[in-house]
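Problem: given the chain below (305 residues), write out its structure.
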Amino acid sequence: MRDGDDHDQGLAHDLTIMARQILGRRQALGWLASVGSTALLAGCGGDDSSTASSSTTATTASTSTTSSTTSTGSTTTGTTTTTTSSSGACIADPTETAGPYPADGTNSSSGSTSNVLTLSGIVRSDIRASFISSTTVAAGVQVKLTLTLVNVNNSCLPLSGYAIYLWHCDQNGSYSLYSVPAESYLRGVLVTDGNGQVTFTTIFPGCYSGRYPHIHLEIFSSLAAATSGRASVLTTQLAMPRDICSAVYSSGGYTQSASNLSAITTATDNVFGDNTSAQIAAQTPAMTGNTTAGYTATVTVGVAL
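Solution.
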């Protein structure tokens, strides 16, 4: 319908008005279609920020914060280190040498076979004291180390009922039953619980010349297998976190460890040197605590069964 002012002005005028009205309708329909599409996109969450907020990732980067406090007068030194780490999947720990000081029946010490695994006192959680003809307690910064044993070929499920034999050097870099033959400290066996875990109380190992600071592990399928001296399913080693090494070795009592550490890294070590960065990360415990109160450490040990 036309306005009254447009009535009876001739055919040409009428055609012009009709064309304008048709064009106007098409423009309006196009505008409505455009608005409808925009509203639909907004309702479906097309905004970049909403997509990003709903996404997840399986890998979390590890962070480490270290702070040191020193009070003069009473000369109290504490180094606090907090480390968090996680990974998207477990990996198999590499097989490493048991070294020359395992005391697991595979070699001799002072001319006789050394095997603590067959002795009843070897099953213990606190391994700081000797248990064979001596009760000497190894000096050093305390460490409570929890190991979680998992099967990398079965969705990283925990392995319960497995025996873990753990041993390492003292703060001077010496091994009981060998370079310190009268002592039997810093050796022990525990059986994993339903979560695949064991917890040892020990000391932070020293750093001796030629080796990066480490802890030895032998994994057995059962306590019976371990205490009968049978072959392990995995022999491996843990690499101690370098920042914690530096803190501990500067706290006193670790003679020569600081200078020995300065001459070696995991990359130049004759055991860890051929491992991948992922393997080194898996072999390095996460540690929290300080040199005064001691440290709490956790690590997952992957076994390929």
